[in-house]
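Appendix B, record 7
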Amino acid sequence: MDEIIENAEAKFKKAVEGAAQEFGSIRTGRASPALLERLSVSYYGAPTPLNQIATVSAPEARLLVIQPYDRNAITDIEKSITQSELGLVPSDDGEIIRVPIPQLTEERRKEMAKLVKSRGEHGKVAVRNIRRDVVEALREDEKKGASTKDDLKRGMDDIQKVTDRYIQEIDELMEKKTAELMEI
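Structure tokens (predicted):
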């Protein structure tokens, strides 16, 4: 039973890390290479993560600079950025791509806050799904006779405490990101 809960704890951590990465990809008005981390570029017909075909840096608070390893990829990178949900407009000089990060309007901040909440809910659902799987595994153990009803009850209480802790972590990440978005 302890092994089941330990495995679940590792899955919970991955779910929280996934939510944190999702939050990192939501722009806040400040330039951060994490904004483009999940961006996929059609490079010679194959979807390729941007970080595998270019270096992304933030030399200024409101500017991202993308240095492609292959100059032929510049148009593909620009196209991917333009078509993304980020609302950014890239420009290039033939060697590097500059992506200015515009100031967020109040309306856009509220939209981004809704997006944060939505992605946070997805993270919480992932945590709850892990809990459901663990509870099913604990019940299977009890049916097979590997544990008693008391063990099942204790295991279910333990997994609920762990679930609550990780949902609280996701809530804290959501609050932090929302506060960052609403700050002018």
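Remarks on this record: Residues 33-100 form a domain with the Gyrase A; domain 2 fold (CATH 3.30.1360.40). The radius of gyration is 21 Å.
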